[in-house]
Write a structure and sequence with these properties.
By secondary structure, the protein is α/β, with parallel strands linked by helices. It has 4 domains: 46-183, 3-Layer(aba) Sandwich (Rossmann fold), CATH 3.40.50.300; 189-280, Helicase, Ruva Protein, domain 3 (Orthogonal Bundle); 292-381, Zinc Finger, Delta Prime, domain 3 (Up-down Bundle); 400-476, post-AAA+ oligomerization domain-like (Orthogonal Bundle). 45% of the residues lie in helices and 8% in strands. The protein contains 20 helices and 8 strands. It has helices at 7-12, 31-34, 55-59, 84-92, 109-126, 142-146, 149-153, 167-170, 173-177, 189-201, 214-224, 228-246, 273-280, 292-306, 310-322, 327-342, 348-363, 368-381, 387-400, 462-476; strands spanning 2-3, 73-77, 97-103, 129-135, 157-163, 180-183, 210-212, 269-271. The strands form 2 sheets. A 6-stranded mixed β-sheet has the order 1-3-4-5-2-6. Helix 5 (109-126) links the parallel strand 3 (97-103) and strand 4 (129-135). It is extended and about 90 Å long.
Length: 479
């Protein structure tokens, strides 16, 4: 456990501008630490949580007159790199705050109780509020989480807990009911791009010691995959490679540019696509999420699923994910393929695809790739039938052609006054009163009474459906 009460105020008192090597995070601290926002206005993304008068702004000491009191406990739930730790540090900058940070990976009940005791002392002697940031709270067991309850309930601490797992399943109910749940969303490409460009120019970051080519920047944005920390780490590594390639000189100094940045001798190192690839050891894939490669690879993926080539389908999924494609896009394509290409030959394929889509949103990358792979294997290896797909297309074609006008009178609603006088419901047979629960009765409009839309194949589960459907049609149509 580490108490960092005056960490931020000490950094703010530094008179000189912070160079890339000596910013607020300390000498040679990582770029992601140096670029940590100092206020909520500098936070990238999460604008749905940071509106005027929002609970987080109130908690950070930006309360508007007449706003409600700050919540005593907040749980931040979101994927890695979306700003959970950042928000906690910004909130801790408020006046009269003591900041304590614990990690559920290493802390135990004794550490929690020690924080509570110190928080009481700090409140009573120094009139300061203790902000306890607990990272990875889902790793705490029930007893450890229960130890937090007295401090949260009595207001000894303001708890800010962070988790990458659904709190409904990982946080005990008493603590959850006393907390305000804030759901963080993955950063989009525009957010990451703006953050990286700010890091290049900002005095706390690279301070103009490098320039980044458009190709390198887009590659770093894709590699970040919505994770700000990952993007900044990759940028810092790429800048280091670029400086090394440039050789000795003023711009090669890892601490940033010289004092006289406008001198003719100063030349920022150029970070190229090659530098970015070398830094993270990942080749740049030709993949434009709005261009031909996006559609070509997606098309090849769907056709591989339809063709039952599970190996090719997994390859195309890997290419899309490594190029930074949104895994939710892939999950949507899987649901479509499960209905269009597998259909009733294996009705469980759609269930797998829907479950995968939900799990991908809960888990996020990189583990989402495993969930997608399971769905891909199921759909690619399943028996195939497009009978349901063809059936709805044929039905739509008839409707557009003007066929199927009207509804048989015995099927019409007969529950409102006067309906019986119009013959509505007259002669309707209740299916449950008939043998096997099937009545001989016309359901389709007169001109479509003998029209068959669904023609099952002899593959997979449809073999049994075909035999049953033939008997059903004979009974319904009175044959």
């Amino acid at each position: 456990m580490e108490r960092v009460n005056d960490l931020f105020s000490a950094a703010a008192e530094d008179d000189g501008p912070a160079s890339p090597g000596r910013a607020a995070g300390g000498p040679r601290s990582p770029l992601a630490v140096r670029m940590r926002p100092r206020s909520l206005d500098e936070v990238v993304g999460q604008q749905h949580l940071l509106g005027r008068g929002s609970p987080l702004r109130t908690l950070a000491g930006e309360q508007d007159p007449g706003a409600h009191a700050a919540p005593s406990s907040v749980i931040l739930w979101g994927p890695p790199g979306t700003g959970k730790t950042t928000l906690a540090h910004v909130i801790a900058r408020g006046q009269g705050r003591t900041f304590v940070e614990l990690s559920a990976i290493t802390a135990g009940v004794k550490d929690v109780r020690r924080v509570m005791d110190e928080a009481l002392t700090t409140r009573d002697l120094y009139r300061q509020t203790t902000v306890l940031f607990l990272d990875e709270i889902h790793r705490f067991n029930k007893a450890q989480q229960d130890a937090l309850l007295p401090g949260v309930e009595n207001g000894w601490v303001v708890l800010i807990a962070a988790t990458t797992e659904n709190p409904s399943f990982s946080v005990v109910s008493p603590l959850l009911s006393r907390s305000l749940l804030q759901t963080l969303r993955p950063l989009d490409e525009a957010d990451i791009r703006g953050l990286l460009q700010r890091a290049v120019d900002d005095e706390r970051g690279l301070a103009g010691s490098v320039e980044v080519s458009d190709e390198a920047l887009e590659h770093l944005v894709r590699l970040a995959a919505g994770d700000a920390r990952r993007g900044l780490t990759a940028l810092e590594a790429a800048a280091g490679v670029a400086r090394s390639d440039q050789g000795p000189g003023p711009a090669a100094d890892p601490a940033g540019p010289p004092e006289d940045e406008d001198s003719e001798d100063f030349l920022p190192a150029l970070v190229t696509l090659e530098h970015a690839e070398k830094a993270v050891d990942v080749a740049a894939l030709r993949y434009d999420r709005a261009g031909d490669q996006h559609y070509d690879i997606a098309s090849a993926f769907i056709k591989s699923l339809r063709g039952s080539d599970v190996d090719a389908a997994l390859h195309y999924v890997a290419r899309m994910l490594e190029a930074g494609e949104d895994p939710r896009f892939i999950a949507r394509r899987l649901m479509i393929s499960a209905s269009e290409d597998v259909g009733m030959a294996d009705p469980t394929a759609l269930q797998t695809a829907v479950a995968a889509a939900q799990a991908v949103q809960l888990v996020g990358m990189p583990e989402a790739r495993i969930i997608l792979a399971e769905a891909v294997v199921h759909i690619a290896t399943a028996p195939k039938s497009n009978a349901a797909y063809n059936g709805i297309n044929a039905a739509v074609a008839d409707v557009r052609a003007g066929r199927g006008q009207g509804i048989p009178a015995h099927l019409r609603d007969a529950h409102y006054p006067g309906a019986s006088q119009l013959g509505h419901g007259k002669g309707y047979t209740y299916s449950h009163d008939e043998p096997h629960g099937i009545a001989t009765q016309q359901y389709a409009p007169d001109d479509l009474a003998e029209r068959n839309y669904y023609e099952p194949t002899d593959r997979g589960a449809e073999r049994d459906i075909a035999a049953r459907l033939s008997r059903l049609r004979r009974i319904i149509r009175g044959r």
